[in-house]
Design brief:
This protein is mainly β. It has a domain of about 150 residues: Glycosyl hydrolase domain, family 43 (Tachylectin-2, Chain A, 5 Propeller), CATH 2.115.10. Helices cover about 10% and strands about 45% of the residues. Strands 10, 11, 12, 13 and 14 form a five-stranded antiparallel beta sheet that branches. The chain has a four-stranded antiparallel beta sheet with strand order 15-16-17-18, with no helix packed on it. Strand 8 and strand 9 form a beta hairpin. The longest helix has 22 residues. The radius of gyration is 20 Å and the shape is globular.
């Protein structure tokens, strides 16, 4: 009897551990939208079956997430391959923003950046004319920023013997960049941006841009995503094009700070509690990269009077592990 009891306890423990693992969210290149007292999360789907594209989850507290009730039949899909959308594979890095009465999504597919739109946050996001934003060469990891003067800018990653972040003015009416404005933001200059744990060309990607008190802040990831030192830093400028000055406190998110490998490529958002957060992904485990897991960490924003700009750091001991609600 004692032997059977021990076996039962071990079996239950293993089942519980497995259930706990399955409950985690496996979205990479993540973003969170805050609307109507709720959080909405999407990202590159990791592992599992189902249609290619992007799904949406919602939460009230950042901790427990579920497919919105109205989207159960569609498995939460807000953009799907072949549904008036560009791309056959490699659906990565979605970003959602609202402008006037329309919701827009930029994303990557077939190593091209794409713009789709919807009248509802819940989609479906589609294109009037199916095609990429700029098919002149490969470009990924798109982010559209609207400046206070009403101009739009597209930040994306272009391949040039490495991955570099570029900025260009963006025409929302045509859904295209103004090629003559295209400019590289910066080069690889810091030791943390290229550690020897994974050999690759220069990689800087996953841009997010915000403006505070007439300063522009560009948050980005560096190193190859398979590198355990994949990490996040930021740079500051007086214009959307730079020149960008990288923070001396970089990286602000790294395995040495948050305690998990491959911590990078996400997005900043302000919570319902007015707290600033960064949502990002990590490696699946210390042994393998994918499917990558989703994480959220509070961000501390402080004004530096001497420098005339904000500084950022994260509360590495307060990382949130988002999980799926019980079915």
């Amino acid at each position: 009897m004692r032997f059977l009891l021990i076996c039962s306890i071990l079996l239950l423990s293993a089942t519980f551990a497995s259930a706990q693992t399955k409950e985690e969210i496996f979205f990479a290149d993540v973003t969170i939208v805050v609307e109507n007292g709720m959080y909405f999360l999407t990202g590159s789907k990791g592992g599992g079956s189902g249609p290619q594209g992007f799904a949406l989850l919602q939460s009230r507290d950042l901790k427990t997430w579920a497919v919105p009730a109205k989207m159960k039949d569609s498995l939460g899909m807000i953009l799907t391959k072949g549904d008036h959308t560009f791309g056959t594979k490699g659906f990565w890095a979605p970003q959602i923003f609202k402008d006037r009465n329309t919701y827009y999504m930029t994303y990557t597919a077939d190593e091209q950046t794409v713009l789709a739109e919807s009248k509802s946050l819940f989609g479906p996001y589609r294109q009037k004319e199916v095609g990429p934003i700029d098919g002149s060469e490969k470009n990924i990891d798109s982010y559209i920023f609207k400046d206070t003067d009403g101009k739009y800018y597209l930040y994306c990653v272009r391949f040039d013997k490495g991955n570099y972040i570029y900025a260009a003015e963006f025409d929302m009416k045509t859904g295209k960049i103004k090629p003559q404005t295209l400019k590289r933001c910066f080069d690889l200059t810091e030791q943390w941006e290229a550690t020897p744990n994974y050999k690759s060309g220069p990689i800087m990607e996953g841009p997010t841009v915000m403006k505070l008190k007439n300063k522009y802040y560009l948050f980005y990831s560096a190193n190859h995503f398979e590198n355990i030192d994949y990490a996040i830093g930021y740079a500051v400028a007086d214009s959307p094009y730079g020149p960008w000055v990288k923070s001396k406190n970089n990286p602000i998110i790294h395995r040495s700070i948050v305690g998990e490998n491959g911590s990078g490529h996400g997005d900043l958002f302000e919570g319902l509690d007015k707290q600033l957060y960064y949502v990002y992904h990590i490696h699946h485990s210390s042994e393998k990269v994918g499917p990558r897991r989703t994480r959220i960490v509070p961000v501390v924003k402080q004004w530096d009077e001497k420098a005339g700009q904000y500084t950022f750091r994260v509360k590495g001991n307060e990382v949130i592990v988002p999980v799926l609600a019980e079915k």
